[in-house]
Design brief:
It is built from six helices and 16 strands. With 284 residues, the chain is of the alpha/beta class. It has two domains: 140 residues, Rossmann fold (3-Layer(aba) Sandwich), CATH 3.40.50.620; 119 residues, TPP-binding domain (Rossmann fold, 3-Layer(aba) Sandwich). The radius of gyration is 22 Å and the shape is globular.
Length: 284
Amino acid sequence: MLVVCEFADGGLAAVSAELLSRARPLADELGGSVAALIAGDGLDRAIEDAATFGADLELVADDPRLNTGLAADCTDLEIADWTRRGHTYKRFLHQVRPAMGSSVLATCVCPETRPQMASVLPGVFSSAPAPRNAHVESVAVDLLPDDLVVTVIDREVQHSDTKLSDAPIVVAGGAGCSADNWHLVEELAAPLGGRVAASRAAVEAGRSERALQVGQIGTTVKPDLYVACGVSGAFQHVIGMRPAKTVVAMNRDPDATIFQFAHYGVVGDVADTLPRQIVALRSP
């Protein structure tokens, strides 16, 4: 299995570590190996990282042009058979991704061309070390000035105390939260020690900044506790919070989709339920 890795800040990007961690057991199931393709300059730390997260072979080279299909923004990867018109294709990559406006999950397959390629949203998989004594193979790079079609002029990074994707507790507000009561989402997050997040509807309504949006078009989170306040449970949002270990949902609609994914649910308007929760958490 080939993982095209992203190089960032002198090492392997977190999403690449997650992909290698998922590729490792898939390759073991097939009785094969994991290769990591890493492109960039000064890759010593990235090479070490790739070996730490399960790469057997590392190809250090410029990104080649591959004549094959690519399924983007996948939420899962599996090895399985696929049958079409009486012919069964054995043990190849099933690439699961949202489709039709994120209303359904589609499984993409690439039965005839190779390599089989997929890109994955950050945070979908958990990174799990699987150390190997990786063989590092350098590949000659011969670039002409005309090959460099993109020039990085400047890079600005804004840091926060805790990345939303790494927060152990996330409190998200949705369309059920108005401008008048959005502060309740923030007040609930404070005693929990959690990060505030938002659904796409809340962001588009101006309740929160887009950097705090959870979902397919946003951040994927995997906290120990995810509290959804007035979130309806649109599929594109659920994709971003599905890895959460425990989900608590509060919504005035008892048939809201979010309750299908919640471990605990409270039926009620956030304007009524949130103040009670805040008082309870602040009580000694």
